[in-house]
Amino acid sequence: MSNTKNSLFTDAAGRNYLVPFILVTSLFALWGFANDITNPMVAAFKNVLLLSNFESSLVQFAFYGGYCLMAIPAALFIRRFDYKKGILLGLFLYAAGCLLFIPAGNAMAFWAFLFAYFIMTCGLSFLETTANPFILSLGSQNTATRRLNLSQAFNPMGSIVGMFIAQNLILAKLDSATEAERLLLRDTNPEALNHIARADLGVISTPYLILGVVVFAFFLMFLFARLPKVATDTGNKISIKTTLKILFGNKIYLWSVLAQAFYVGAQIMVWTFIIQYAEHELGMPKSVAQGYNIVAMAIFVGSRFICTFLLKFIKPAQLLAVLAAVAATFVLGTIFLPNAQFVAGQYVGAYWGLYCLMAISACMSLMFPTIYGIALKDMGDEAKLASAGLILAIGGGAILPPIQGWLIDRATWFGSALSPVRFSFILPLICFVVIALYSRSVIKKSS
């Protein structure tokens, strides 16, 4: 019996939650797929619809804006009902957003794609607001952070599949016409440009249509699944006013929300603009650059399992502090270290800056679930509303990438010392400094 009680998936009463843990963990891969099939679309839409870096990065604004707007309603919904109904509504909205890509492609309207992304992530907001605290509740609070790290380890597995689909079924199949060639066609033969753009938008839309069907299958699976009524689904409900008073009086929680916003912003910037970095600094095609992004995600996956193991021996805040400092160092390498030069038809030297950009993923793997676990530790029913604040913080991914895109567009601002793409990575650097300061604050509080 003692071995059972020490399990990640058993509570103090000996109830085993392994099966519901597996079911809910499958959702982590599902929204990971959505996140990382979408990041490369910033570069794709820029070329297909002839947008600026700022305009194309509005994909991230719409995508993560849905998280931000729907987090509080999602928390209130699962507070009023239960975790299962939150999951079902999330899956329904997710599928609906995917299916909206078909009319968006037919209309050839960028705003319609942004609306589809927004509806998708309203659903993802429900899923994340529900699944994260649900996983924390499926067993002992003493192992909650480890359990969430384990579930989150399956998120990048979905991400890798999404990135592979983006590379091979979208980026590689887009028309090879460059931005300059498309601009020329816009002036000389708009009908030909329209034909190319329509075909490219069809290439972009098809994987989302298939994804919508898959997500609806998950909806049916959860509709008939039996999920447990955990402690936070039953019992007395404290008032929202009381909960908010408790949360706003909790300095660690408020720090966690801020740190989460900066973390998500850093993650999306690193994974979105790696393509622009490889294109501008090395002259790589988008599909080749996406291959390096996939390697970065593989590093992220491996590091997640390693970090989950290390949490058995190192306190979460301490490991977080170390990784934030190392991540900041890698960002400095991304900004300042040289890359190979294209000489006489081949690259000479190593891609040091690009390697540093990829290595940041090893440091990021621990951050989201660890900040989440620190913030919600021992919160009980308050975790439902507290979770909304942490999902609301995903709005950092809506705000910071467009700012980075705007910096890249301002090529003449920085002279010749640094390229605009390199300089723009000062934003992730600031983010990791904030996370390091947050970790230090948590360590001091707990000492």
Describe the fold and architecture:
This protein has 447 residues and is mostly helical. The protein has one domain: Growth Hormone, Chain: A (Up-down Bundle), CATH 1.20.1250.20. Helix content is 76%, strand content 1%. The chain contains 23 helices and two strands. It has helices at residues 2-5, 18-38, 41-48, 53-56, 58-80, 83-99, 101-107, 110-137, 144-152, 155-170, 179-188, 190-224, 240-248, 251-272, 274-282, 286-310, 316-336, 352-364, 367-376, 383-392, 396-409, 420-424, 426-446, and strands spanning 341-343, 346-348. Strands 1-2 form a two-stranded antiparallel sheet. Helix 6 runs antiparallel to helix 8 (110-137) and helix 17 (316-336) runs antiparallel to helix 18. It is globular and about 70 Å long.
Secondary structure layout:
Layout: H1 2-5, H2 18-38, H3 41-48, H4 53-56, H5 58-80, H6 83-99, H7 101-107, H8 110-137, H9 144-152, H10 155-170, H11 179-188, H12 190-224, H13 240-248, H14 251-272, H15 274-282, H16 286-310, H17 316-336, E1 341-343, E2 346-348, H18 352-364, H19 367-376, H20 383-392, H21 396-409, H22 420-424, H23 426-446
Antiparallel strand pairs: 1-2
Helix pairs in contact: 2-8, 2-10, 5-6, 5-8, 5-20, 5-21, 6-8, 6-12, 7-8, 7-12, 8-9, 8-20, 9-16, 9-19, 10-16, 11-12, 14-19, 14-20, 14-21, 14-23, 15-16, 16-18, 17-18, 17-19, 17-23
